[in-house]
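User: Sequence for Cytochrome c oxidase subunit II below. Tokens please.
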Amino acid sequence: MPVDSLRRALVFALPAAALAQSDGVLELHVVARRFQFEPETLRVRAGVPVLLRLTSPEVPMGFNLPDFGVRTDIVPGKEAQLRFTPTRTGQFTFLCDVFCGNGHENMSGTLEVRS
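Assistant: Structure tokens for Cytochrome c oxidase subunit II:
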């Protein structure tokens, strides 16, 4: 099985966010579904660069992490990528900022940044 296919299989098999850490970058996969993010909690370490791979199987979504000043649109059928390096420890809220239907206001998750 090609490495890319294996990686994609693991993306959907793992309930937790962590996929891989290569070249010092932590890669996490997040699926935006009506009306939740999977996983709802992302755990990272301060100072470690993060690459989020974001997909939506349903409708256009947004991913906004205001405490770190990053956001992107998520278009169904395409992978969006978002890179940032958490510089502070604590718990921070990320949310969908593109109206995706009734229940949109409850679509959020938590980024846990540890030292």
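Confidence is low (pLDDT under 50) at residues 3-18.
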